[in-house]
């Protein structure tokens, strides 16, 4: 039995020496030292030994086990070291490689133009507000003097969600929301940029989704001349000092009187060309004095307060300012188009 044990130790040690991976080593551990392993197997024969031989062989068996375990430990450490080195080699990072260029994004042209317009009005003492795109029929129409069945509702073809809920067709509901929030006793000076939706068929000048900026100024003694002065200042700041504005009578149910504002055509300086359809003027926005009914519904006393409101389309303004010929460019996200305006 002693020989058997010696032989087993020799064989084990040489096999351990020859292993190439931790996995193989673990396998050997099972083969030699496991519950059904070779050593256990040999020791099963202990029962046939004499009383004197038993402790001797027992001790020897322990030595063999210790020797094999020790050899495995040493081998395992070596193998782990080798594997670690291999892995480190595989994962080496060459820090001398030049970095990959990172594409730096920029604001969307519509965002830039909205921010530019916001800055102009913030400079005039306005605050920037927001309102929901999913709006109630009440705020989108009724609070703006457009009761159910009013023919002027047809001016803005609407995406309805339910009878009472819709995608807002303009940013004007934020007029009513703001006045209501201020509870009828504070002056209002706000603009509100945002997306609006209409049931239009998309073409070069129409989109079912576009942007608007609403403006509202309510205080004591606000007059039409204040509206004109404000719009004139705005137009010159955004399009250039040399541009003229003109106001034409128009109709909106929520303003009285109502106007549309044109600016003189930049392309032909008012001479008439294809951009301005030979008129020398380009329509830019709708505006007017806030209708007394709108003030009343929002809790402002029209005998004390007056105000003006305006609504413009940043899409259209950007198109005019940068000579963009198709509104769909704004929503296609073609990087070649967008990149041109990163420093705008
Ligand atoms: N809401 C109007 C539109 O979308 C524009 C407008 C706003 C007109 C405010 C007058 C006053 O056409």
Give a concise summary.
The chain is α+β, with helices and mostly antiparallel strands. The protein is built from twelve helices and nine strands.
Instruction: Give the CATH architecture of the largest domain.
Output: 2-Layer Sandwich
Cα distance, first to last residue? 92 Å
- The helix content, as a percent range, equals 40-55%
Total count of domains = 2
Helix and strand string, N-terminal first?
HHHHHEEHEHEEHEEEHEHHH
Give me the CATH fold name of the largest domain: BirA Bifunctional Protein, domain 2
Walk me through the structure.
- The protein is of the alpha+beta class and 344 residues long.
- The chain has 2 domains: 2-90; 109-341, 2-Layer Sandwich (BirA Bifunctional Protein, domain 2).
- Helices cover 41% and strands 19% of the residues.
- It is built from 12 helices and 9 strands.
- The strands form 2 sheets. A 7-stranded mixed sheet has the order 1-4-5-9-8-7-6, with helices on both faces. A two-stranded antiparallel ribbon has the order 2-3.
- Helix 5 packs across helix 10.
- It is elongated.
- The mean pLDDT is 91.
- Phenylalanine (PHE) binds next to strand 8 and strand 9.
How would you describe this structure in keywords?
344 residues, alpha+beta, BirA Bifunctional Protein, domain 2, 12 helices, 41% helix, binds phenylalanine
Give the topology, please:
Layout: H1 2-18, H2 22-33, H3 38-43, H4 53-90, H5 109-123, E1 127-128, E2 134-136, H6 137-140, E3 165-167, H7 173-181, E4 188-197, E5 209-219, H8 224-239, E6 245-252, E7 255-264, E8 281-290, H9 292-297, E9 306-312, H10 314-322, H11 329-332, H12 335-339
Parallel strand pairs: 1-4
Antiparallel strand pairs: 2-3, 4-5, 5-9, 6-7, 7-8, 8-9
Helix pairs in contact: 1-4, 2-4, 5-10
The chain binds phenylalanine (PHE).
